[in-house]
Design a protein that fits this description.
The protein is an all-beta fold and about 400 residues long. The chain has 1 helix and 26 strands. It has an 8-stranded antiparallel sheet with strand order 17-16-13-14-15-19-18-26, with no helix packed on it. Strands 20-21-22-25-24-23 form a 6-stranded antiparallel β-barrel. A 5-stranded antiparallel sheet has the order 4-5-6-7-8, with no helix packed on it. The radius of gyration is 20 Å and the shape is globular. It starts with about 45 loop residues before the first strand and ends with a strand.
């Protein structure tokens, strides 16, 4: 059985209209699914154009986003369908649909291309394969999507497209993966080919912590069960003290915390991170599984970099060197841009989780370019260890 996330394989796929990718077309249940069966103008996409974190379910009715605009912080994003293409990807080749969404984000316009395929006979959104503020070139070559665009770099506060990136998107089983430079599909960890569609983003949530003074901070976390989310970030230390964290799921569900706890003692030693006990169960159909590796790593670990934007994962490597004296973190590098404002907002910087070939979340935090050993990720905390602080 292919890994789909911590829940049962069919969890969350029963109710049309509530699950990302559920098609309104009854023909989609035919024995042999066809792209023409996908009602892509009346469809629930996972995310709009990479702005919302986590990538929120975005329902379309006749090509226009229905309901309220999705938000990251105070800036709304509203999407509409503007284009679609049929493409053949992979080896052996299969047919997919790429759909271009155009999003109004504040006073800016952003493009997001989504890849649509099937999970059995169920049409699904497999992820955002490209997103940018400005012009974006997308074509097919040798069974892969080829993407090229500029991006607004955080170095100049996102004022203009000073960054540039080009990459390919290859299908590894049912998982689209970004490949940069000379990277090849054979470089992807072997187990990824056995993942079910969208297993790469199983369990991702955003935790929004706020202080009595009104300061707000955003944190990427993962959901372990219906009422528990964890993050590698410290929410119970520092000048602000303990900061309760509201949890957002990809279904747009906002859940207040019943309790926020952390593991950092006064001496700063031991495992780091926080756990949020939710005040009510989430409706998210997928959970994450985690492991806490022993640091330093015995050897470099290859895996996938998964951000909260909904952009499909990229190759990444966790190094063997720990960062700083006694710091429970290791350097993680990837050729995926670490300074794309669209991806890093509203976090304090580049933020992602690192998944191994079995889909397990091993690390969480920042990444850097190859050769950069200053950006690091922490292991997620072991929820079985008693926290030392809370509110």
């Amino acid at each position: 059985m292919r890994w789909r996330g911590w829940r049962a394989a069919t969890a969350g796929l029963a109710v049309c209209g509530l699950v990302a990718g559920c098609s309104a077309s009854p023909a989609a249940t035919a024995a042999t699914p066809r792209l023409s069966d996908i009602a892509y103008r009346n469809f629930v996409y996972r995310g709009g154009c990479g702005w919302d974190k986590p990538s929120l379910d975005t329902p379309m009715v006749w090509g226009v986003q229905s309901g309220p605009a999705t938000r990251t912080g105070t800036v709304p994003s509203h999407a509409e369908v503007v284009d679609s293409r049929r493409v053949r990807l992979g080896a052996p080749a299969r047919d997919y649909l790429v759909v271009r969404l155009q999003c109004s984000i504040g006073d800016a316009t952003v493009t997001g291309w989504h890849l649509l395929g099937f999970d059995g006979t169920q049409p699904v959104d497999l992820g955002i394969v490209a997103a940018a503020y400005g012009p974006l070139d997308l074509r097919v070559a040798d069974g892969q999507l080829v993407v090229e665009h500029g991006y607004r770099s955080t170095a100049d506060r996102g004022l203009s497209d000073t960054g540039h990136t080009d990459y390919r998107v290859a299908m590894v089983g049912d998982t689209p993966v970004r490949l940069y430079g000379d990277e090849q599909p054979s470089d992807v960890p072997r187990g990824v080919a056995d993942w079910a569609p969208n297993a790469w983003r199983a369990g991702l949530v955003t935790l929004v912590a706020s202080t009595p003074s009104g300061a707000v901070s955003w944190h990427l976390g993962v959901q372990l069960d219906e009422t528990t989310a964890i993050t590698a970030d410290d929410l119970t230390v520092g000048d602000a003290g303990c900061t309760p964290a509201v949890t957002w799921t990809h279904a747009g569900q906002r859940i207040d915390p019943a309790r926020t706890q952390g593991w950092v003692g006064a001496d700063g030693t031991g495992q780091r991170g926080s756990v949020v006990t939710l005040s009510l169960p989430t409706d998210a159909p997928d959970m994450a599984r985690t492991t806490r590796p022993h640091l330093p790593l015995a050897r470099p670990l290859s895996g996938l970099l998964v951000t909260g934007s909904g952009l499909v994962p990229a190759l990444a490597t966790a190094g063997i060197a720990s960062l700083g004296p006694g710091a429970p973190a290791v350097s993680v590098t990837s050729r995926a841009p670490a300074d794309d404002r669209l991806e890093t907002e509203p976090f304090a910087g580049p933020t992602a989780v690192f998944r191994d070939g079995q889909g397990t979340v091993v690390l969480s935090g920042a990444w850097g370019a190859p050769g950069d050993v200053t950006a690091g990720m922490r292991p997620l905390p072991d929820p079985g260890v008693m926290p030392v602080a809370g509110c």
